[in-house]
Amino acid sequence: MFKRLLSAFGAGGASVDTVLDSPHALPGQVLTGQVHIEGGGADAVIDEVTLSLLTRVEVEYGSGEHGASGELARVVAARNLRVPSRESVVVPFQLQLPWESPITALEGSPLPGAGVGLRTELVVADAPDEGDLDPVLINPLPSQVAVLRAFGDLGLGLQQAENTGGRLPGMPQGLPFFQELELVPQSGDGFPQVQLTFVTTPQELHVALEANKRGGLFRQDGDHFGRFHAPHGEAEQRDWTPEIGQWLHQVGANGMGAAPGYPGEYGHPGGEPERSGPGVGGVIAGAAAGVVGGMVLGEVVDGVFDGDDVPAVETPDIDAAEFDADDFEEPDFEE
């Protein structure tokens, strides 16, 4: 939640406090809460009360990567709102999370490099007043948990997470950016590093994998790709460990240097074996033991959006391999 005084915009010193009913959510769920406005010394009229869900996105153009503020969702909770002097006004809101929302937490532990925040903006006399970011913990869907559990069973741990601007070919992607989860082997079993991306719809889970990444997911200088998909119910019950393990062994057999190209679709295995292993918590063990261990969500969000002046830039519809410097505004935060 945040509190801000609006006297600079003629709102009579009104204060604002945004409260989430719960900071925990799943992709596709509705985030609910209230914006509490306390009237100041004079009556005020607020043109709009807007809430937006933001995350950091890395885009590559020119000489390297540049950070931008990517908007996941936005809702106008109220218009032409009168706030009497010294009185309280409560504005309830509902904000639909996209099914492709990045994962920011596993079993209560924030993911390194991942952060999503809710920003409240009030417009008074055509002058917007942006609040701080309220952190939102987005946990994986049960179908995503099943895939993450398989990587944990296979001995791969999460090192970091990053949102990348662009689109994946052949995927039902709605947002103009996607999350990459970097998984690293925790033992010398010969497995490569893997970049994992989930693309979810209300009906299905799509999984994109890349091993030994050099140039980015599905770019022409990448090494070895894998792609899986299943309805959510089936994906949740499936034991993904043999399927992903087979793909990892194939990558190893090819020396992690297979000719680049778009992967074929993997079939659905027969049967639904029972799951085993340490659980999804094992996938974050490597990160928790490293230099990024011990972070709390507030620190993650502060690192993602450093300061109060980060612009809410809606990322445009672009191709992953073709960036234009004019497509993204470079945000005003420190790296």
Automatic annotation (TrEMBL):
Low complexity biased stretches: 256-266
Organism lineage: Bacteria, Bacillati, Actinomycetota, Actinomycetes, Pseudonocardiales
Region Disordered, residue ranges: 255-279
Pfam families to which the protein is assigned, alphabetical: Spo0M
InterPro entries (alphabetical): Spore_0_M (IPR009776)
Record protein name field: SpoOM family protein
Signal peptide: none
Domain of life: Bacteria
Spans through the membrane: none
